[in-house]
Amino acid sequence: MAAEQESDHVKPPVDRVITPFKNVCDTSGLKITQINDKTTVWPRSRALTWTLMLLLVTCLLYWSRMAMPICAVTMAKEFGWTKSETGIVLGAFFWGYCFTQVLGGHASDRIGGERVLLLSTSSWAVMTAITPLLANIGLQPLVSMTVSRFLLGVLQGVHYPSLVSICAQRVTEGERGLLMSTLACGCYLGMLLVGGVGSLMLDWFGWGSVFYGAGLLALCWSFCVWKCLLHGPGFSLDSLWISSSSAPESPRINWLNLLKEPSVWAMIIAHLCFSSTNYTLMSWLPTFFKDMFPHAKDWVFNVIPWFVALPTSLFGGSISDHLIRQGCGTATVRKLMQFCAMGVAGVFILLLCKTDSFIQAVACVSLAIGLSTFNNSGVSVNVHDQAPSCAGALFGLLLVYLSGYMIEITGSWVNVFSVLALVNVIGVTIFIALGEAKRVDQVDQPQTVSTC
What we know:
The protein is mainly alpha-helical. It has 2 domains: 20-249, MFS general substrate transporter like domains (Growth Hormone, Chain: A, Up-down Bundle), CATH 1.20.1250.20; 252-441, Up-down Bundle (Growth Hormone, Chain: A). It has helices spanning 2-10, 44-79, 83-99, 101-111, 113-134, 141-156, 159-170, 176-205, 208-230, 255-258, 262-292, 298-325, 330-351, 358-372, 379-386, 390-410, 414-434; strands at 33-34, 40-41. The chain has a two-stranded antiparallel ribbon. Strand 1 and strand 2 form a beta hairpin.
């Protein structure tokens, strides 16, 4: 009898076992399969549909995000902006972007990632569509465009936290690396779309058409998702704000203990450094090619690098999962992927300082961006699971503005690319030295993904 009482005493109470999706249906009434106490997946047909829609909305997100960099040269000439002022407009996006990272993750846990994504997309779609109108409201264009970019960053900041929340809730852990690399292709498809179609629209119809196109297509996406995927039994616009019964309970996190871990700081710093170089390249490459090769076709340098990024992203996700399945240590694989994404890519960024050939410049940029996609299988996966990336967005803001200031003062791109290469070296060195793959947060409770 005493043994039975002792056994009962050590068993955890039933109400402390977190099984957030047990016996639930999605909002369209289709049953969601539970494969264990912590992981649930959509039915295969549902998963394929959502994967396609998530890929598409990420594509449109980057069209909207990159509309300003693509049009920056034309707008700077029209409004008389200097390089520093252009840097302020481009960098304002990241001020807003860093403010809603944690909020997006919290909201996704509370009302469901799908709902947060719908609200976010419909909001930034409207903001993108009205951006050209804001340039003529009576304020200085520098002020109105800076404010619009800030608000766009606020609205888009919740996208990736909600995307990661959806993947964590609906996809098994062993498949997340490849899935995140696949969804990351939406970024490169968006860059291809805005670089190719957007450049043609810029030449034919003016810079406003680039914003109108992204905004209207995103509104169409929002309507289709609301009508076809989320508008099921019991679902209404009011229910977007009601806590979702299928959303996992958010366990408490001891952030103080978490931030004492060197491996956490290694991931944050590496992601911070990667974000800074990635955002700066995306923001300033169109201006770089316009300055250095004024007679080059826009669609060439705005398309080719992102065309290369598509297969390299999928290759990186596949090879990393393959190496782990073959028995390689997860931490070793993550460090290898990140070395390619930052170390090897940094070499090609440095080579941009030494080339006067348009073909060589496009080749260097393409290789640098292609290799950078390995980040999706490196730090990105660990950061999504263990640490917030708000600091990375903030640092990206500072470097975007600093790049414009350096170009304005020195008149040279050499300093910019040298700084980017140095930042990459610092980030990947710290990650290789201190990075780990083990979970270090929420030691005493079942885990849910944190925001990134």
